[in-house]
Write a structure and sequence with these properties.
Elements (H helix, E strand, L loop, with lengths): L2 H22 L6 H8 L3 H7 L3 H21 L8 H19 L2 H16 L3 H26 L7 H21 L6 H16 L3
Helix pairs in contact: 1-2, 1-4, 1-6, 4-5, 4-6, 4-7, 5-9, 7-8, 8-9
């Protein structure tokens, strides 16, 4: 099996699993169901994924990929921390664009539900929020040091950003047509930045 063929098979398994999780729910979908839907053997499935849970969590990672990519970008030499945070704020809209997909809404809600029943999923679900908190705390600390941000509790400020993001994501999942959540998220982050940034 060539590398490209392997990646295509892996991606196809993820697509089918996402459809099944959205239609039937996480608990009601078995590895056998995913294999049948994807037209692969169990051997092929386990070649790519350790378990059904691993598929589930990779779907989460796909959803968060735009934000991960943006946070991983190196700062330009002349870029201030407020400029970095605004860039991240603008990129958050890409996450809401993905979240607007009905299938992904259902998968994310299933992930939250599964975390209540499966103790091994909860730490994996919380891992990205902890990672974002640490990255933002470090970034805010750099802004305080460079003099572009007020001296604040950087860990608390990072928690505010993460909580704001999660709260808006939850609203977008529960009420997708209620507002343009991507635009609101960008404006909300800008509003918080007004209190942090030294003018």
């Amino acid at each position: 099996m060539t590398q490209q063929r392997g990646e295509e098979t892996r991606s196809h398994i993820l697509d089918v699993a996402g459809e099944l999780f959205a239609q039937r729910g996480y608990d009601a979908t078995s590895v056998a169901d995913i294999c049948d839907g994807a037209g692969v053997t169990k051997g092929a499935f386990y070649h790519h994924f350790e378990s059904k849970q691993a598929v589930f969590l990779e779907l989460r990672d796909r959803w968060l990929a735009p934000l991960d990519m943006q946070l991983a970008l190196t700062r330009a030499e002349d870029e201030t921390v407020p400029e970095v945070l605004q860039r991240v704020s603008d990129m958050v809209q890409a996450i809401f664009a993905v979240a607007g997909d009905d299938q992904r809404q259902q998968v994310f809600l299933e992930l939250l539900s599964a975390a209540r029943h499966d103790a091994t999923i909860l730490p994996a679900l919380l891992a990205p929020t902890r990672k974002y908190r640490e990255l933002l705390s470090s970034l805010i600390g750099a802004g305080i040091k460079e003099g572009t941000l007020h001296k604040v509790d950087r860990e608390l400020a990072a928690q505010v950003f993460v909580s704001l993001g999660l709260g808006l994501i939850m609203q977008s999942l529960l009420d997708p047509q209620g507002a343009e959540w991507g635009a609101i998220s960008s404006r909300a982050i800008s509003l918080v930045m007004q209190g942090l940034e030294k003018k």
